[in-house]
Each structure stands twice: as structure tokens, then as C-alpha cells.
């Protein structure tokens, strides 16, 4: 009841801030790009090279050493699809967690909506995510996986992933103000989350039915599975997959926004 009552106010304020503070949002994103690629020889090319290099390393380890494979599909395409989506969530949520704490000095000088900081991080990493689609599609074409009209449905999956990530970003950035240990704890959580998400292995390799059912509760598994259904099997995801992706994104976004809004007035006491 409390969440549903707060929902209209949360989303209306988000929409208003997006219009009113659009210029500031753009400047924060531009600043992040300048900081990230400052004095880098390759610059934004790292957005293309990093996922490819990660895929190569993981493919050598898990396909050649541990003998992982996925029947009927290209393992490289399977791996790259999972890596691309999970890396977006991992990087965006990690950067967003420290976004409010890192900008305390700016908050004390001028008024601005505090959630613009985690939002800017999610959008900044989102631009890099769009760039990583280039090497993903290069792998899809080079491995003979091929394309299909269902690829037009992938933006739905990406928007749901963005919503889920933004919800987690709002939650983490607010919680980190009160608990700075979260910066260290979340690194461990992300490591565990990586192995609990079928990125480099097929979920059918797990023999325990209860464990498989538990892993399917992972929202990131649902987003990756949605993409793989299209990319690898050239089929339209089931209506249930559409619904699960949307609901998990909505619940995360709503929960994160409500928590952030209820705690933001106390941020100044922990600067």
C-alpha cells in the first residue's frame, strides 16, 4: 500500500527532473566520459575491445579448460550475449553506488535532485553498452549464428535491464551514504552474482531441479535468457518472459525510487 501510494509522486518527479535538469544530466555524462578516457590512447575504442578481450579469456578458460559447451549453438555467441548484458549491470550499479557520496561537495553548493547522479551513471554506462553491441554483432555474424527479425524485440529487453539497473542504482547509492562498508560488500556480492548467473555455463548443466528453480529467480538470468532466445535460437520469447522482465524491472525501479526518496533528506548529515 505504501509503495503504490508513493509511486505516482516518484515517477512524476523523475519525469519533471528529466525535463528541467536535462542540461545538467548531459554535462554529468560528458564529464564521466572525459574522466574515464582522459590520457587514454585508445579512448572509446576500449568500449569495443574490453568485452572482446573478456570473451576471449573466458572462452579459453571455460571452453578449453573446463570443457563448457552449449549444444546446438555457438559457445562464443552464447558467452558474448551473457557478458554484454551482465557487464552493463555490473559497471552501472557499481559506479552509481558511489555517485551520491562522490558529489557531496556539489550538493552543498547548488540545489539539484540527488537521484540525477545515479541516473547519469546508468545512462553513461548505457552509451558504452550501445557501443558494445558492435562487437556482439560481429561475433554473432562471424560465428555463423545469423540474424532474424526477432532482433527488433531486443530493445524491450535492454529497456527492462535499464529499469532494473536504475532501481538497484537508486537503492545502492542511497544505502551507501549510511553504510560506507557497502563499497566493499557489494564487490563480493557482484562476484557471487556473476557465478549465480549462467553467463559462461548452461543452466541445464545443473542436475538439481530446486537449484535451477532458484537460479531462475535471478532477474539477470531472465534478461540474458530473453536475449539468448532471440540471438541463439531465432525464436520469439514466450509471453511469460516478457512479463517477468517487465515486472522485475518495475519492482526494482519502484522499490529503489521509494527508498531513495524517503532517505535523501538525511544525506546531508552523513557528508
Shape: globular
Beta content comes to under 5%
| Tally of DSSP helical segments | 12
- Rounded to an integer in angstroms, the radius of gyration calculated over CA atoms is 19 Å
Low-confidence stretches: 1-7
Distance between the termini: 32 Å
Helix content: over 70%
Mean pLDDT: 86
Number of strands: 0
Major sheet attributes = none
Based on helices, strands and strand pairing, what is the structural class?
mainly alpha
Architecture overview:
There is one protein chain. By secondary structure, this protein is mostly helical. The protein has one domain. It is built from twelve helices and no strands. The protein has helices spanning 2-20, 22-36, 46-65, 75-97, 99-102, 104-107, 116-142, 154-178, 182-196, 209-215, 219-231, 239-263. Helix 8 (154-178) runs antiparallel to helix 11. The chain is globular, with a radius of gyration of 19 Å. Residues 1-7 have low confidence and may be disordered.
Amino acid at each position: 500500500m505504501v509503495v503504490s501510494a508513493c509511486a505516482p509522486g516518484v515517477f512524476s518527479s523523475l519525469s519533471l527532473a528529466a525535463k528541467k535538469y536535462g542540461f545538467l544530466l548531459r554535462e554529468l555524462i560528458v564529464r564521466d566520459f572525459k574522466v574515464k578516457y582522459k590520457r587514454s590512447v585508445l579512448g572509446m575504442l576500449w568500449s569495443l575491445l574490453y568485452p572482446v578481450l573478456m570473451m576471449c579469456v573466458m572462452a579459453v578458460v571455460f571452453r578449453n579448460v573446463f570443457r563448457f559447451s552449449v549444444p546446438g549453438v555457438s559457445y562464443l555467441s552464447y558467452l558474448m550475449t551473457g557478458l554484454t548484458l551482465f557487464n552493463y549491470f555490473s559497471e552501472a550499479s557499481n559506479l552509481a553506488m558511489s555517485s551520491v557520496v562522490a558529489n557531496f561537495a556539489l550538493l552543498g553548493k547548488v540545489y539539484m535532485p540527488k537521484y540525477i547522479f545515479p541516473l547519469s551513471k546508468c545512462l553513461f554506462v548505457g552509451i558504452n553498452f550501445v557501443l558494445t553491441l558492435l562487437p556482439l554483432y560481429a561475433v554473432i555474424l562471424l560465428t555463423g549464428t545469423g540474424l532474424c527479425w526477432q532482433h527488433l524485440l531486443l530493445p524491450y529487453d535492454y529497456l527492462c535491464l535499464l529499469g532494473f539497473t536504475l532501481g538497484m542504482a537508486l537503492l545502492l547509492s542511497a544505502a551507501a551514504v549510511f553504510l560506507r562498508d557497502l563499497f566493499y560488500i557489494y564487490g563480493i556480492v557482484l562476484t557471487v552474482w556473476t557465478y549465480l548467473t549462467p553467463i559462461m555455463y548452461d543452466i541445464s548443466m545443473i542436475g538439481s531441479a530446486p537449484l535451477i528453480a532458484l537460479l531462475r529467480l535471478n532477474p539477470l538470468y531472465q534478461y540474458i535468457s530473453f536475449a539468448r532466445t532471440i540471438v541463439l535460437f531465432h525464436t520469439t520469447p514466450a509471453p511469460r518472459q516478457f512479463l517477468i522482465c517487465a515486472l522485475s524491472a518495475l519492482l526494482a525501479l519502484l522499490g529503489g525510487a521509494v527508498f531513495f526518496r524517503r532517505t535523501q533528506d538525511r544525506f546531508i548529515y552523513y557528508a
